[in-house]
Amino acid sequence: MANEKSEKELALEIRTNIGARMNSPSAQRNRDPIRDAFSKSMPTAGTALEVAGGTGEHAVHLARAFPELHIYTGDPDEKARASIASRIEEAGLENLTGPHHIDVMINNWGVEEQAPYDAIIAINMIHIAPIEAVIGLMRGADRLLERGGKLFLYGPFRRDGEHTAPSNEAFDADLKSRDERWGVRDLEQEIVPLAQKNRIQLEDCIAMPANNFSAIFGKT
Ligand SMILES: C[S@@+](CC[C@H](N)C(=O)[O-])C[C@H]1O[C@@H](n2cnc3c(N)ncnc32)[C@H](O)[C@@H]1O
Q1: Pick from 44, 116, 126, 181: most CB atoms within 10 A?
Q2: How far is the CA of 218 from the centre of ligand 1 (A)?
Q3: Residue of the CA atom closest to atom 18 of ligand 1
Q4: Tens of pLDDT along 84-120?
């Protein structure tokens, strides 16, 4: 989703709504590759907390694929929560709960009761949020993950100071023109040091379609 066309669609995508339920073309495109990367690298049983749930499509897709994994999902945006609620109702899955009002920049996420979690999931969030959201996410991962639990980040990344494709560089500039606090994050130089401050270590990085990555971190 990091190529110029599809990422611009993500940020400016035309989402068709059926009632409160939003449909994201980009989520439809990337949900299968994300599920497959998840199945190789993440706990598929136990509990998972998804932040930045957006339309709710990924949470439903993952909950359907992994019935032994109970997913709690949420988003700080009211319209996103309405979409998630509608999708949860429609899906009727016993292993999917939400939507919670989770803002990772706030110290209490309101989902502490179910902790510790086996997994935390953040898909397409950290480039469309200020760096304080990454700091909050890593603190939350330290606070709420089980020892040995995993954090799953998906999206475009710079790798050790370099963009991985010209389209990602253009996307980065586009993000910054919309909000100077946003931008494609550098996995090695920016994210890993913030993670390590919170006992979270990078374990794997899986190349995904359209110059995206799934980055898997473990809590020590
Ligand atoms: C580009 S959307 C991605 C939605 C979904 N994960 C997907 O890939 O389709 C980014 C999401 O991040 C959420 N978000 C932004 N700032 C956040 C924060 N501080 N804490 C949690 N979520 C946040 C937004 O509300 C939005 O739903």
Answers
A1: 126
A2: 22
A3: 103
A4: 999 999 999 999 999 999 999 999 999 999 999 999 9
Pocket of ligand 1, beta carbon within 6 A:
10, 24, 27, 51-55, 58, 75-77, 80, 102-105, 123-125, 128-129, 133
pTM beyond 0.90? yes
Summarised one tens digit per residue, pLDDT across range 183-205 is 999 999 999 999 999 999 999 99
Residue nearest to atom 9 of ligand 1 (CA): 27
What is the C-alpha to C-alpha distance for residues 181 and 46, in angstroms, rounded to an integer?
Answer: 35
End-to-end Cα separation, the chain, in angstroms: 31
Q: What is the CATH number of domain 4-219?
A: 3.40.50.150
Give the bridge partners for 201, in sequence order.
218
Per-residue confidence band for 12, with pLDDT thresholds at 50, 70 and 90: very low
Q: Could you tell me if residue 159 is left (phi over 0), alpha (psi between -120 and 50 degrees) or otherwise beta?
A: beta
Q: Letter for the amino acid at 151?
A: L
Distance CA(15)–CA(213), nearest Å, equals 24
A 10 A CB-CB count for 77 gives 16
